[in-house]
Amino acid sequence: MERVKLDFPAEAVIHRHPLTVRVTDMNYGRHLGHDALVSLLHEARIQAFAALDLPEWDMHGYPSVVADIAVQYQSEARWPDALMIATAVPEPQGKALTIYQRIYQTESQQVVATARVNQLLIDLATGRPVEVPEQVKQALSHARCG
């Protein structure tokens, strides 16, 4: 079986967001379900971009869409575990924002999962992806430096 292996770019972290596993996030195996994990990643990603005044629905005139997602599961989380999600965005290349996220247990620092999302900004008039605007690149660059 081929496994997803993701390298988390710690030098590109722009935000950290605390979350707690809710009882409704549990699956029948009594740990954090994969569907809930994707929702937690989305919440942390929204918070990271909002902190930079870059809402996903209007990144300097362009809404964004998720093109793909990959998740590497590394350990279990259960209710009521306190988690931290670090969001990292390396320098954008071309038309995609590549967003890495690492979920880890707040207390033990045990990694729960690492994810990568490729996100595109869309021109609503054409329905086509556009180059990442310079203002978005600058906001991300400043967040990585601070």
TrEMBL record:
This is Thioesterase. Keywords: Hydrolase. Belongs to the 4-hydroxybenzoyl-CoA thioesterase family. It comes from the Bacteria. GO terms for molecular function: fatty acyl-CoA hydrolase activity. The keyword Hydrolase applies.
